Predict the structure of DNA topoisomerase 4 subunit A.
Amino acid sequence: MDDSQPPLDLAGPTDGDTTLTLADYAQTAYLEYALSVVKGRALPDVSDGQKPVQRRILYSMSRMGLGFGGTNGTVGAKPVKSARVVGDVLGRFHPHSDQAAYDALVRMAQDFSQRYPLVDGQGNFGSRDGDGAAAMRYTEARLARITSLLLDEIDEGTVDFIPNYDGSTEEPRLLPARLPFTLLNGASGIAVGLATEIPSHNLREIADACVALIKSNGKLSEEELFALVPGPDYPGGAQIISSASDIADAYRTGRGSLKVRARWKIEDLARGQWQLVVNELPPGVSTQKVLEEIEEITNPKVKAGKKALSADQTQLKAAMLSVLDVVRDESSKDAAVRLVFEPKTSRISQDEFVTTLLAQTSLETSSSINLTMVGIDGKPTQKSLRQMLNEWIAFREITVERRSRHRLDKVQDRIHILEGRQLVLLNIDEVIAIIRAAEDPKAALIARFNLSERQAEDILEIRLRQLARLEAIKIEQELAGLRDEQKKLEDILSSPATLRRLLVKEIEADAKTFEDPRRTLIQAEKRAVAEVKVVDEPVTVIVSQKGWVRAQKGWASEKAAGNGGTAPEYSFKSGDTLYGAFECRSVDTLLVFGSAKDKSVRVYTVPVASLPGARGDGQPVTTLIELDAGTHVTHFFAGPVGACLLLANTGGYGFMATIENMMSRQRGGKAFIDVGEGEQLCRPSLVGGASGAEPMPAATHVACASTGGRILTFDITELKSLPKGGRGLTLIDLEAKDTLAGAAAYTRSVRIDGIGRGGKERDETLEIRTLNNARGSRARKGKAADLGFKPASIVRVL
């Protein structure tokens, strides 16, 4: 016997039309894999809100008899070992990892993960601090009572059944959900190229929204809809501080981010002392996480590649230790969350204490919304709140219609059987005689009484005790009830209005049974921002050409006046020189301008208070910002937020903007100035609004100097302010191959710096009389100036 394998033939078919390239095959295979992950694992279905593994667990537990029964559905089954449930799920429906199935089961039992837990777990099912559940051989589980809304109608023809993975049995494609569980419990998942983050909601609010949409035939206004569903209702409570418009935008688009903060109370202690107790946390936040964050702040570690703590770490540590004395976790079985914070002293402002904690920890955080799911058409898409509710209502209409038709078929079959029995009871003696005498009683009964085979078969199987006179009365009563039910069912199936009324009635009944109060408070508040107290005092920000910065107390010009008018001299590292000394205040801002990349210039913000002192050479500004890759620092300016700057680029364009317009909270700054291909930002020039011992007056004109030696001056009113940035207007009409050396706002004089013969640095100050000779309108060519050197930059003198 030859066990050798034949060589693999990789040659494609001879017909060119059916040839499949490796790229096409890989694309097709990956697409199939992606769709399998999206629809088979990661995303919930809008119809029942369940992922496939959750649906299989619930159906398997229902088959095992682990649901609630009794006349009112209030009698629960005895729990069984979770391992038994997982084994049944894996063996029949879900041939994957046992741990994956158990993790899904555990999540459905956690009241801090799901707003309405679907599994009633007994034993250790984990904690919100991240503690894992006990092994499946130790825990026990049964279905929660609310799962009746998912499973009660499953045997009433409401949904399609499909073969399981090996064809040995069948499983439901969907569960006949009587409420939109996609919104009630939410979902979280990551697929291939798609992700979902659906928050949980309050059952009564969602039910009311469904009822209103059904009654209005889908014409409910957005304002009315958002009034019924004001926002998510998280399992752990907390408070949503985003505005109603932000919540509405997230619901309208299916994507957004909400600001959520913890809820707390102040407990008064003896001798005027007090403590802050947090009893509700935002979603995804645990007491352990908050404790770890505070430990990291109060005992910071030196970052990788650094020799000491950064200024931010030191400042944050000092701010936290100045208000916080002790924090401890007092959570227990009686209090799921109890996080106690004791202030350094009772004299600390409670508002300041709370703001510091909210700003520096996860007690205030963001919760994303991404309403992506598998729609009623089977396609994974991002939907709005209205679309989700409308699709679920459409699914529920189909479900009730199928249930009614299934019930009608059973009612009609029962009526058919009872009509045959009724006929037999009227002729009981003759029927008995036929049965005793005929060789084929079934055929004889059909021929004599015009019965159907179904009726004849039933009569032959009937018990003698059912031939009593009392039975005839019962049959008449049952027939009357069944015919009434038949009329109602036929009315439901023939009248859309009747169907909608039934939907409303059932939704309201289910909501009344399972409703509970809202847990999450929705109240708009301003986001907590930690304000570091900075002494407002005059400082001089010293910046070198290579980007080393430091702040010296006092204003340089005042020191020079006290020193006989001698200008101060600053020391720098070898090969470095002064870029500029900016007189401002410690509460002001240093702007750092990067080089152009992708036709834009980023502006970075550094608080003057965070700059190192004047001793030594200072600190590289690149350690205070996150410079965009492939760029370098080019220019600087420090001053108050109201200071206005003239921003020009080498292409001859420019505009005005304030420091406040360019500020950003991000260390990565923000793109603010647009430039053309190959263009760069010229040195920014002060227009007005700066501080200092002798603040510059507001500029009245603009002077432009090109590298070709042309100068143009014009009235500053011809320029525009662009608060959101951009490229601006044409300042000077440049000749081909000529570029703008710089533009400076001025009142009386400017200084032009450049390079003369032999590479020697040259400069020349132009007074107002000379500048007036170059006066014109904006965007003109200007006049040629005999400077004797090539201009490189222009700065304001007065």
Summary: The chain has 21 helices and 38 strands. The two ends are 102 Å apart (CA to CA).
